[in-house]
Design a protein that fits this description.
alpha/beta; 11 strands; 26% strand; 3-stranded antiparallel beta sheet; 6-stranded mixed beta sheet
Amino acid sequence: MTTLLQPELIARAEALGLKARAVVEGLRVGDHRSPYRGFSVEFVQHREYVPGDDTRHIDWKVYGRAERYTIKQYEQETNFQGHILLDASRSMTYGAGASNKLEVARVLAATLAYLIVHQRDSAGLGVFDSAWRHRLPPSGRPEQVRAILRALAAIEPGPETAIGPLLHELAETVHRRGLVFLITDALDPVVGLLAGLRHLRFRGHEVVVFHVLHPDELSFPFDGPTRFDALEGGLRLRTRPELVRAAYLRALEAHLDALRAGCAAHRCDYVLMDTSIPLTESFTEYLARRGRVRRV
């Protein structure tokens, strides 16, 4: 199995960081905006002074101009909870070596967990196929990374996928707003998947979809008489790829367009992860792009 924590990838990802772009709810001071007002670092507004307020926060410049006491209010900064959801259905096992979809997904999940915990936030893990197979609640303790690595290493792929109902369940059971990272090949009906993403967004979570696909799935490069064995569902099909390539690519593009458009409509990040591109390029490119965009 591929080493899950890769030093070069970790170093480049740490340099870029992973901050919440939406308002989150936290339990302690960290690096992300909170919906609660306090006296931290980012100025938000003034309010009238009331007896009992700390006089250190009086804005004396306003008093000099208007002869009235006002208090400076700041936005608390806080930690976030990151929920890493990894698709462990059998279709994720396609590919050999470093381009295997599940191996890329494991490394990505491990990198996210390490990055989140090391910047003093909380990471949790949910491994699923058609049901939850392993769940670790979010924690910011250093040993949480080791627990997530053990869970990732122990994954046994399941027979099929059903993402939508699991996203609805998560939206109903996780009440504290945070970040949800969905790592999947999304070989599921788009309507159900998007309904689950919409539910998470309605609950206030920021959502990132990492769509993991093998280059064979993106270009369909096969030639000559070929037998295709479905990794999920048991279907076997003998055909000449050149006769179905155009129809396959049209269907794939329609699927991708629907997924991209749905993610954009629900204000979820969509990231296509071609497994032929090293994560040191694809993931850090996403982090760099994310850092340039501010979303509320």
